[in-house]
Design brief:
Elements: H1 3-6, H2 8-37, H3 57-92, H4 99-114, H5 116-132, H6 145-173
Helix pairs in contact: 2-3, 3-4, 3-5, 4-6
Length: 174
């Protein structure tokens, strides 16, 4: 029995991450399936895009682009969550301070920062689609959460890298 199976927090985290990994796959695949189909639909069939009746023809193409961005976002989320799950697994095995985890944290930091690009694009497209359908005005917020998480993960990567180095030094002296 591994440490992860005995530790309820690690076991719960693994279950949640597995669920989120599956969800990101389902969302990404759904977006990839819907994207090429949407432009083929009759505008009258796409009236669910707006509350004001059929969407303008170009709105279907904007939603198609949004679906493709959603697939990219889901894929990036999958990569982030997969790295996190591998780190959780290494903690459960009692060996978290390894160079591989430092590398995973660095990759996760870049992903967290880069996730802001499709997030901003999706927010912008949503605002444009709303404006096209006659709702509201275009307002775009630039969240800093991804940047802050990314910077935090870069620092944690250094901590893990230093921990791995110190462990190697200690093993070399024993």
């Amino acid at each position: 029995m591994t440490k992860a199976n005995r530790d309820p927090l690690l076991a719960t985290m693994r279950i949640i991450l597995t669920f989120l990994l599956g969800l990101s796959v389902v969302i990404g695949v759904a977006c990839l399936i819907a994207a090429p189909v949407l432009p083929l639909l009759d505008p009258a069939q796409v009236h669910i895009l707006t509350e004001h009746g059929p969407a303008p023809d170009h709105a279907r193409y904007l939603v198609t682009v949004a679906l493709l961005l959603g697939a990219i976002f889901a894929g990036m989320c999958f990569m982030f969550l997969r790295g996190l799950r591998r780190i959780v697994d290494s903690v459960g095995q009692g060996d978290p301070f390894v160079p591989a985890n430092a590398q995973r944290l660095t990759q996760m930091a870049w992903i967290a920062i880069l996730l802001e690009i499709p997030a901003i694009a999706l927010t912008s497209l949503g605002a444009i689609i709303d404006r096209t359908s006659g709702e509201g005005s275009i307002e775009i917020d630039v969240p800093l959460t991804g940047l802050i998480i990314g910077l935090l993960l870069f620092v944690l990567a250094r901590v893990f890298r230093e921990g791995a180095r110190m462990r190697e030094e200690l093993e070399g002296t024993v």
